[in-house]
Amino acid sequence: MVLGATGLFGELLARRIANENSFSLIAAGRGLAALTDLKKQIKCEIAIVDRNDVQMVSDALAQYKPFAVVDCAGPFQYYGADPFRFARQVLESGSHYIDIADASAFVAGIGELDDLAKAKGVTAIAGASSTPAISSAVADVLTDSMYRVVSIDTAIIPGNRARRTLSVMRAILGQIGKPFEITRHGKAVRVYGWGETIAVDLKLPVENPVTNRLASLVQTPDVELFPKRFAAETVTLRAGLEIKTFHRLLQFAGLLVRYGLISSLAPFAASARWVASGFESLGSDIGGMQVRVEGETESTGSIRRSWDLVADDGRGPEIPTLPVSILLDKLLRNSLRPGARPSPGEITLGELEERLAAIEAHTVCYEESLQPLFKTVLGEAFYLLPKAVRALHDRPGQTSYVGTAQSMGPTGLSGRLAAWLVRFPKAGEDIPVRVTITADQHGEKWEREFNDSTFNSCLSVDANGYAQERFGVMTARLGLMQRDNELHFPVLSAKLFGFLPLPQWFLPKSIAHESVDERGRFVFDVLIKTPFGARIAHYRGWLERHIESNIS
Asked: Which long-range contacts (CB under 8 A, 24 or more apart) does 10-17 make?
C-alpha cells in the first residue's frame, strides 16, 4: 500500500512498483478522482485513506492486510502532536512500514516504535529518500579510511521543470527563515533556513552540465544523524532552485520570517506553486545532487571526496523513490532485521547505483588533495619549516591552540588609534592566549583571544598566488617566505575596502615571524608600526594545540 499515491513521489513510486511486478499494489489517498485516473494507467487497486482518520486507517489495514505500507503523503513536518500515530497503526496491524520523510525530528524519533516493531516481528524505516538514505549511503563510501571527518556537505538542486506538489512546496517554504541547529566544528550552532547560500558545480561530462546552481541551508535528518554516525565535525545540507532570481526572492522572503515580520511562508505554498508553474519554461528538466566529504587519512593526508549525480529528461524526481524500492526488495527477501530505525545503513551505494543506471542517471566519484593555504603559497619551501610551524598551518577544519604571551602596548596617538580599531591586545605579561583557526575552501579565519581582547583576521590566496590578510577594512598582501628556519610575513602592499590601494609610504610596517623554541613549541613574534614609526602592537609568545571533543 502506497499512501499519497497521487502526489509527486507517491505516484512515481506506485508506477515503479506496478512495473516491477514484485508486489500487487494498493494505491491509497484522499482523492477518488485522482486515484481512479491512476488506476486507468497502471495495474493497482485503489483505497480512500486519510491518514488522520484513525478509524479509516484501521479499516483499510484490516481489509487489505498489506505486506508493507509506504507513507509518501507528507509533509512530515506537520504530522502534529502524535507524529507516529499512522506508523504505529501500521505496525500494530502486522505490516512493515517505510516512509520518505525528510523531517529531521520525525526521522530521528522513529526509534520510539522499535519495541513495538520487534514485538510484531516487522520493520519500520524512516527517511527512505534522498536524505538521509541516499546521502548516508554515499557518505558511508566517501568516509571510508578517514580517521577524521572534517565535514559532510550535501546539495540537492532540482531542475526548474520538476513537478511541484503542494506538499513539497509547504515543506520547503515552511523552513525558510526559520532557525535550526547544525553541528559546525563539533559544536551546535544556530542557522536559518535558506541562509548561507553557495554556488554548486557538478563535474559530469553531460551535454548540459549543471554549474553555478545556488543552494542554501535546509534542515534535514542529515544534520541530526550524521555528526554521531560519522563523527563528523561539520554537517550541512543545502537545496536550491535553478532560476537564480527565484532563489534570491526566497532568500529575501526568508528575512521577513527571520525578523518576525511574518510567521511563516508555508501559507503561501499554493500561490508560490501557481507562480512557479507559469515560469517552468525558463529552466530545464536537469537536476542533480552532490555529497562532498572532507577529512584526513593516514595515507593521503587532507582530502576531499565528492559524489556528483545528474539526472536529465525529467528523471530527477524518481531518485528519491529508489531507496524505497531497494528496501521493499530486501523485505521480500527477509533481509531486514525487525525494529524501527532511520534509514542510514539500510542501503548501499552499490545497490543505489544499479537503479540509477536503470533510469540513465549519471554519477561520478572523485578525490582531490586539500592543499592548505600556506602550503599553496610557499610550495616546497613549506617543508623546510620546523615541524611545529608546519603542523599549525597544515590542518583542515577548525583547530585551537593555547599558550601565553607578553604584549607591549601601542605608542603615540596614531598607534593607539590603530590598535583600538583592530582591537590588538593591551600591554601585559604572561597573558593567556587562545588562537582558533578555521580553514575551508575559501581560506582561513584566525580568531585570537588575549585575556579580554579578541581580534580576528581572514587569510586567503589572491589571484596572483600571494597570501592576503584582511583586518577590518584593510587587506594586506603578504610576502610569505621561509628564512633561517623561520616563517616571515612582510607586508608588500595593502588596500582599503578591497579596491583602494594604499601608497607605499603609507603602509604599516610589519616585522612578524614564526619559529620554535628550545622545547619544540610553536612561537610567534609580531611587531606592527604605523608608517610614522609609532608602535601599534608588539606581542610574542608560544602556542600548543588544544584538543577538545564536542561530539557526543
From this structure: 10/70, 10/72, 10/73, 11/38, 12/317, 12/318, 12/321, 13/70, 13/72, 13/100, 13/321, 13/324, 13/325, 14/38, 14/42, 14/44, 15/41, 15/42, 16/318, 16/321, 16/325, 17/325, 17/328
Neighbouring C-beta atoms of residue 234, cutoff 10 Å = 24
Outline where DSSP puts E strands in 374-529.
397-408, 428-440, 443-450, 453-461, 467-471, 474-478, 481-483, 486-488, 491-496, 500-501, 509-516, 522-529
Nearest-CA neighbor of 138 among 289, 330, 267, 3? 289
Phi-psi region for residue 121, left (φ > 0), alpha (ψ -120 to 50) or beta?
left
CATH architecture of structural domain 373-546:
Beta Barrel (2.40)
Q: Is the distance from CB of 48 to CB of 32 less than 8 angstroms?
A: yes
Nearest of 175, 51, 170 to residue 105 by alpha carbon:
175
Q: Which residues does 294 contact at the CB level (< 8 Å), separation at least 6?
A: 149, 150, 151, 302, 303, 304, 305, 370, 396, 397
Q: Where are the alpha helices (DSSP H) in 211-321?
A: 221-229, 244-258, 269-277
β-pairing, 486-488 with 481-483?
Answer: antiparallel
Q: How far, in Å, CA of 23 to CA of 325, rounded?
A: 11
Kindly report, residue by residue over 234-267, the tens digit of the pLDDT.
999 999 999 999 999 999 999 999 999 999 998 9
Nearest to 371 by CA among 301, 457, 297: 301
Which strand ranges, in their side-by-side order, compose the sheet holding 146-157?
198-200, 213-217, 232-239, 146-157, 287-297, 301-311, 362-369
pTM for the model: 0.84
Q: Span 2-126: which CATH code?
A: 3.40.50.720
Measured between alpha carbons, how far is 430 from 405 in angstroms, rounded to an integer? 5
Q: Is 188 exposed, middle or buried (0-12, 13-18, 19+ CB in 10 A)?
A: exposed
The whole-angstrom distance between residue 436's C-alpha and the CA centroid of its chain comes to 22
pLDDT tier at 546 (50, 70, 90 boundaries)? confident
Furthest-apart CA atoms within the chain: distance in Å: 90
Q: What is the pLDDT of residues 317-333, one digit of tens each?
A: 899 999 999 999 999 99
Average per-residue pLDDT for the chain: 92
Q: For the range 492-500, what are the long-range contacts, defined as Cβ-Cβ under 8 Å and sequence gap of 24 or more? A: 492/466, 497/473
Which amino acid is present at 479? G
Residue in the block written with cell 517505510: 98
What Rg value do the Cα atoms of the chain yield, rounded? 28
Q: Which amino acid is at 124?
A: A
Mutual orientation of helices 221-229 and 135-142 as an angle, nearest 10°? 30
Q: What is residue 478's predicted lDDT score, i.e. its pLDDT?
A: 95
Q: What are the distances in angstroms from CA 422 to CA 402, 456, 473?
A: 21, 8, 10
Domain range annotation of the chain:
2-126, 130-313+357-369, 373-546
Query: Domain 130-313+357-369: which CATH class?
Result: alpha beta
Backbone angles phi and psi of 525, in degrees to 5: -145, 115
Cell of 488: 616571515
In 140-157, which positions are buried (b, 16+ CB within 10 angstroms) versus exposed (e)? bebbeebebbbbbbbbbb
